[in-house]
Amino acid sequence: MRRISRCTSAAFVVLAALGCLPAPAADGFVPSFRDPHHKIEKPDLSSLRNLRFLTEDDFPPFHFALPDGTLAGFDIDLARAICEELKIPCTIQARRFDTLVESLDADKGDAMMGSIRIDARSRDELDFTLPYMLTPARFVVPATTRLTEVAPESMPGKRIGVLAASAHDAYLATFFPETTRKTYESQASLRDGLVRREIDALFGDALSLSFWLQAQDGAQCCRFLGGPYIDRRYFGEGVAIAVKKGNDSVRQALDYALATLAARGTTTELYLKYFPLSPF
User: Do the domain assignments include residue 153?
Assistant: First the structure.
């Protein structure tokens, strides 16, 4: 089971623990992940007495534990908003990431918010709600770069760093064949390669990169260049809530709640709270 790329920015955890999350995105851009014209009828909720969410506690900003053990994050706030919308009690329990699917299959929970990427492999094991987040890719360049755009025709011979054997590596090989790809074994070494100017740019997961660019080392050295790349064949269909195969009643209730929260603006408020530098 794969997940969206892990954010390792300790700065975000410290800010969240202190109750002083960064200010909303300066550009004010908030992407829409749903068709506003697609209405979802309220399902019959009479059989839904409570909701048991499963998550983990080490994947900021989606879900993480504060120093006192309290769960926090985008997914945690969204789960609580869902329960308020459906007017049913809920619990949120943290487990190790590698045990989440097993726990869901064993009926130890009703829904899983584990930032699991939706693709053919995960669909074989789970059913999903409609996505509430996409997973774009973007280029990051040194702040002083002379590059003015990122496009296949403008980057022949440029050294582009990328995580080895990743979807981003495959995307570059297909659509940017004239660049010189330099692969790294970890996100940290990839970012360090850009800071040390071993490469002219890096290409990777925009969600985790947005938090690195808010941290001291990233903010001082680098910036996004060019818009987001969203290709389901390479980067998956997005992030959604997972339920056990065939659990249509819970999935339909969650889809209704997610659509209602999006229409009301609640999802936008949470996005601005947890994504101060828009990855889009």
Answer: yes
